[in-house]
Amino acid sequence: MFDDLAIARALHVAAVVHWIGGVLFVTFVVLPAIERLAEPAARLALFDAIERRFAFAARISTTLAGAAGFYMTEVMGLWSRFADPHFWWMHAMVGLWAIFTLMLFIAEPLFLHAWFDARAARDPDGTFRLVTRLHRVLSTVAVVVILGATAGAHGYLPL
């Protein structure tokens, strides 16, 4: 039997695991390793090489997560949840997805890489610290959203 919602949910979860798992890996494994192992002048080039490779895969994952999430919302008629504060986690999921989608598809290709390269040329250590801080903030937000969305999807409505 074909269960389109089960397939959509599985694709959505797999895409989020890949995308956010990759962000967490970069934040808590790759960046600290680069800081410990690479010479200060080489840190940003190494990070940039790793991050650019992951960006392609993350574009696929965020696209799949967004498409599956939209499909489930439409098919299950869940649009009204966006008007109910009990479902804050739906807004949080869309917001997190929008931030990463804008970064991956618009900001990075249009101007962020040029800004990053110019800033890195002026202040490589400060730029590396900024990249690390931004990744930590986004990772923390992502974990909060995942916890809230998982609890909310399983019936926990704290408000």
Q: Beta fraction of the residues?
A: under 5%
Nearest-angstrom radius of gyration? 18 Å
- End-to-end Cα distance: 37 Å
Secondary-structure element sequence?
HHHH
- Uncertain ranges: none
Structural class: mainly alpha
Report helical residue fraction.
over 70%
What's the average pLDDT? Answer: 93
Tally of helical runs: 4
C-alpha geometry: elongated
Number of domains: 1
Q: How would the blueprint of this fold be written?
A:
Elements: H1 4-37, H2 40-75, H3 88-122, H4 124-153
Helix pairs in contact: 1-2, 1-4, 2-3, 2-4, 3-4
Describe the protein.
- The model has no long low-confidence stretch (mean pLDDT 93).
- The chain has 159 residues and is an all-alpha fold.
- It contains four helices and no strands.
- The chain is 85% helix and 0% strand.
- It has helices at residues 4-37, 40-75, 88-122, 124-153.
- It has one domain (4-153).
- The termini are far apart.
- The chain is elongated, with a radius of gyration of 18 Å.
